[in-house]
Amino acid sequence: MKRRLLLVSNSTLHGSGYLDHCQTHISDFFGKDVKRVLFVPYALHDRDAYTKTARDKFKTLGFEVDGIHEASDPVDAVRKAEAIFIGGGNTFRLLKSLYENQVVTEIRKRVLEDGVPYMGSSAGTNVATVSINTTNDMPIVYPPSFCAIGLVPFNINPHYLDADPSSRHMGETREQRITQFHEEPDTPSVLGLREGSMLLVEGNKATLLGTTRARLFTRGKHSVEYSPGSDLSFLLTQ
Amino acid sequence: MKRRLLLVSNSTLHGSGYLDHCQTHISDFFGKDVKRVLFVPYALHDRDAYTKTARDKFKTLGFEVDGIHEASDPVDAVRKAEAIFIGGGNTFRLLKSLYENQVVTEIRKRVLEDGVPYMGSSAGTNVATVSINTTNDMPIVYPPSFCAIGLVPFNINPHYLDADPSSRHMGETREQRITQFHEEPDTPSVLGLREGSMLLVEGNKATLLGTTRARLFTRGKHSVEYSPGSDLSFLLTQ
């Protein structure tokens, strides 16, 4: 299995700039061999502005960026990509566009079979998993399916948020929402990635990186906390 | 137009019991003519327990409750209902079950044509509008459509929450999420109902009730605040 993934909870950490908190990991992940990264800006409305943001940041790290929407044939752009980065925004809009542009299968193939490195942040991390069933986003558009690219056999909840005991708000907590997901049959585990954390997958090895812990929710079991540096490879064989 | 609706933001307000904050409005809304209310518990996993909760509360207000899942034919139960109450929980699970039980059209017909009073809270308020595109819930199941019962020509965001300026969390604010919805073409207005507020619709008259203000988001316009008691009838003719 050639799979190489960097799945980031959030693109911007409070008090720092776009992708600052994970830039060392990005440089290490793409490494010396990658010169150009194919950026997928489908999760935000203004694709040009979003691509400029990514391009400017990646330039400081020594990588060129091509926007997939700038290509005349997006499937061909995926076929030729050295590396792929799907940015955050609205997960429903992102997945709908991935299906409309018929790149879901091609991205899966390139990453799992050809070993093309895949980075996602937030919504881009959601779509790398089994399904978008555990996104936090508002369902502003209707995608043809909630099934996602499926680069790992579990789900992620990015921007995972602990309940605030002082809150007077009565909407469900994040934990309650994930528990409701697990009331449904045959639902996969959900890794709650707090802001500041990310998952590095290399082949069949998965490692938690970043500065915050992650919380793993498994159907019918108590949730478990993992610290940065933890080996989470067992998630890949469930 | 015989339509009569009571659309509540939330079933439980911090520090009080189930439906306590709106019980006077519930009594006034159903009135002396209604003896039995058909309760739709589809939004929660345990339908029996949920129906007991609703039944116990409504008994104190002088109404009997029938759970729609207790009927052998849910469509027939809707046809015979004197009044309908759809409770909160997960909006995706609720809408999927409404479609599976083929009651979406029948509820619309009974409410709009026969004048059967409809009460919703939280998810039950979402499904009364144009679509569930502005729910806060996690998409734990995939409904056949996001189109909802359509008892009013706009959308509602229940549990509307103002941004917390002291928060270090970088997930989108509620306002940002609704703005993303309005980046999509032909999207209806969204009434953000804060916890403690509700909308009473009688024919072509809509009035904001409760103890908190509501915020109206309209595509391409600045959002506007409305105080309890405001006449929002203009929303019904958009």
From TrEMBL, chains A, B:
The keyword Protease applies. It is an enzyme of class 3 (hydrolase). It catalyses: Dipeptidase E catalyzes the hydrolysis of dipeptides Asp-|-Xaa. It does not act on peptides with N-terminal Glu, Asn or Gln, nor does it cleave isoaspartyl peptides. Coiled coil: none annotated. It is found in: Cytoplasm. InterPro entries: Class_I_gatase-like, Peptidase_S51. Signal peptide: none annotated. One of its GO terms (biological process) is proteolysis. The keyword ATP-binding does not apply. One of its GO terms (cellular component) is cytoplasm. Belongs to the peptidase S51 family. Hydrolyzes dipeptides containing N-terminal aspartate residues. This is dipeptidase E. It comes from Xyrichtys novacula (Pearly razorfish). The lineage of its organism: Eukaryota, Metazoa, Chordata, Craniata, Vertebrata.
